[in-house]
Write a structure and sequence with these properties.
Elements: H1 16-20, E1 25-31, H2 35-51, E2 57-63, H3 75-84, E3 88-91, H4 100-110
Parallel strand pairs: 1-2, 2-3
């Protein structure tokens, strides 16, 4: 996995397409103790559904499950939203690591089983550099004069 974390900060919003362009999966995280973060998460899901690849796997993670006594977003509300939008859904705790591995495993199981034919045109992905010693066809070595 290549993981990019914008922490949902508004200052990164205009840069977000750079992060999810060509992505095969996205995890949208909200804080179960803060209803406003759930509303913002829904906005991110909507944007991903509108602008990311149609085959992207989107997971919704309700974080801070270790603070369930301070819950402001009900599990059933988030699960219903996830079901309505075909999202994977789990409540997690970054503090205790509850369901973190399970979420990544669930995403991995939903990803395509085969590699795409060419990743070079996948919206900026495939940014690898060929470090082999062969020179490009029809050209001489760089700086050989």
């Amino acid at each position: 996995f290549e993981i990019w974390d914008t922490a949902g900060q508004e200052r990164y919003h205009s840069l977000a397409p750079m992060y999810y362009r060509g992505a095969q999966a996205a995890i949208v995280v909200y804080d179960i103790t803060n209803q406003e973060t759930f509303a913002r998460a829904r906005g991110w899901v909507k944007e991903l559904q509108r602008q990311a690849s149609p085959s992207i796997v989107i997971a919704l993670a309700g974080n801070k499950a270790d603070l369930a006594s301070k819950r402001m977003v009900e599990y059933e509300e988030a699960q219903a939203y996830a079901d309505d939008n075909s999202l994977l859904f789990m409540e997690t705790s970054a503090k205790t690591a509850m369901n973190v591995n399970d979420l990544f495993l669930a995403i991995a199981k939903k990803l395509p089983k085969t590699e795409p034919q060419s990743t070079a045109g996948a919206g900026g992905r495939g940014r690898g550099v060929d470090l082999s010693e062969q020179s490009p066809q029809g050209r001489g070595q760089c700086c050989s004069n």
